[in-house]
Amino acid sequence: MAGTKKKENRGGKREGAGRKPGTGPGREALSVRQVKEFQAVAEKLAKEFGYPVIEVAGRIAYDEDAPRRDRLAATKLFLDKVTIAATEGGEADRNLGPAIYLPKQRDNIVKILKE
After folding, report:
1. What is the pTM for the complete model shown?
2. 73-to-36, 39, 44, 50, 51 alpha-carbon distances in Å
3. What is the mean pLDDT of the chain?
4. C-alpha span between 73 and 82 (Å, rounded)
């Protein structure tokens, strides 16, 4: 019985089954195409107006005549896109190792930290 194979009854290839043309690993994701389009428009407008789009948010954030809510919105937009979000439980946390070492290990760690 171990040498016998089951009969294949799934019917073989079906019309419309499988990956659609142009959606393979070599094709760009939608988000990548959208970012490239945004960059092209941003560069075009930067040439036209003389400063990049990020400077628009900076100008609004520092404009003392602008309403406070607009300044706060521009500041939040700028900080949300520029600062890195801190996360816990990621790869860096797993690589930290134990906080307490045996005496032999601790001496080696102290030497490394002093260098």
Report:
1. 0.46
2. 25, 22, 24, 23, 20
3. 79
4. 14
